[in-house]
Write a structure and sequence with these properties.
This protein is of the alpha+beta class and about 325 residues long. Helices cover about 40% and strands about 20% of the residues. Helix 6 packs across helix 8. The longest helix has about 35 residues. It starts with 19 loop residues before the first helix and ends with a helix. The protein binds dinuclear copper ion (CUA). Dinuclear copper ion (CUA) binds next to loops.
């Protein structure tokens, strides 16, 4: 099994696209940049010409001599209105065409439900009965339909290498399709300010080759395996004896809380606390002992648990793959 001592930090550049829609958005971005530079350059040239001409004239001269009124009008109407309107019209048509095409890829019914919380992502695969957090696993051969909604305030899903932004709005369901042409880990962020820890609301899209994807999901469908190692058994008992169970679910155990992330396979995840910490025993123990210090404002309370007990609980959680 993978052991990550650091949370992965892949590219977040829109100019490094790994899906059809993202590639179209990257071209659109490049197109808009070129247009902006051309217009900016033109304005600067005209400004320089104006300054040069103005230097020769005297202050007493009327600003618009009668003979030049026609020429001035031509510049104001032609350059100011007609030229600007034409450029903006072209840009509008290109932008609308790109946005229309960005949702057009054939979708497979791999439906994922994504729920934004302050400050983490709940990930549900209803057809598979899997609930996870802060990462979405997809196959590379098809676009995955993701229904998004929010449990509290407005959040926004943005994975620059794969897709444009989609808002998660309370009381409203939006839909976005995500695909990746190559296997890998892609990084997303919450792109709508949602409170103190908005900057710590990361999400990973993990794209697998189809066969690997099937195996990964099959393993995640299983309930948590009851530990046989004495330390892990002790950790499981302590976890179930503490208030953890009121907020977290570990399928196959009495823990059935719904407030916090489902922990059935937390040990297989890339991070805890939505991208802040790797899923290591040390990070888990530190998080349980004092989450408010790591992520001020988090709903997770700290637990004053003795060192050995804390180690047992952290080891148990890390073992939940
Ligand atoms: Cu969620 Cu910003």
């Amino acid at each position: 099994m993978m052991l990550l001592l650091q949370v992965p930090s892949p590219s977040m550049s829109i100019f490094d696209p790994v899906s059809g829609p993202a590639a179209r958005l990257a071209s659109l971005g490049a197109f808009l940049l070129v247009i902006s530079f051309l217009v900016f350059g033109l304005v600067m040239v005209l400004l320089a010409m104006g300054l040069r001409r103005g230097r020769g004239g005297s202050v007493d001269e009327p600003p618009l001599p009668h003979v030049e009124a026609k020429v001035v009008r031509r510049w104001v109407i032609g350059g100011g209105a007609v030229f600007s309107a034409s450029v903006l019209a072209v840009v509008l048509v290109v932008v609308l065409a790109t946005l229309r095409s960005s949702g057009a890829e054939a979708a497979q019914e791999a439906d994922v439900e994504l729920v934004g919380h302050r400050w983490w992502w709940e990930v549900r695969y209803p057809a598979l009965g899997i609930v996870s957090a802060n990462e979405i696993h997809i196959p590379t051969d098809s676009a995955v339909r993701i229904k998004v909604r929010s449990a509290d305030v407005i959040h926004s899903l943005w994975v620059p290498q794969l897709q444009g932004k989609m808002d998660l709005i309370p009381g409203k369901e939006n839909e976005v399709r995500i695909s990746a042409t190559r296997a890998g880990i892609y990084r997303g962020e919450c792109a709508e300010y949602c409170g103190a820890q908005h900057a710590h609301m990361e999400l990973f899209i993990v794209a697998h080759e189809p066969a690997e994807y099937a195996a990964w999901m099959a393993a995640r469908r299983e309930p948590a395996v009851a530990p046989t190692d004495p330390l892990l058994q002790r950790g499981a008992a302590l976890f179930q004896a503490h208030a953890c169970v009121y907020c977290h679910t570990v399928r196959g155990t009495p823990a059935r809380g719904r407030m916090g992330p489902d922990l059935t396979h937390v040990g297989a995840r890339l991070s805890i606390a939505a991208g802040m910490l790797p899923t290591t025993q040390g990070a888990l123990a530190g998080w349980i002992a004092n989450p408010g210090r790591i992520k001020p404002g988090t709903l997770m309370p700290g637990f004053a648990i003795a060192g050995e007990d804390l180690r047992a609980i952290a080891a148990y959680l890390e073992s939940l793959e």
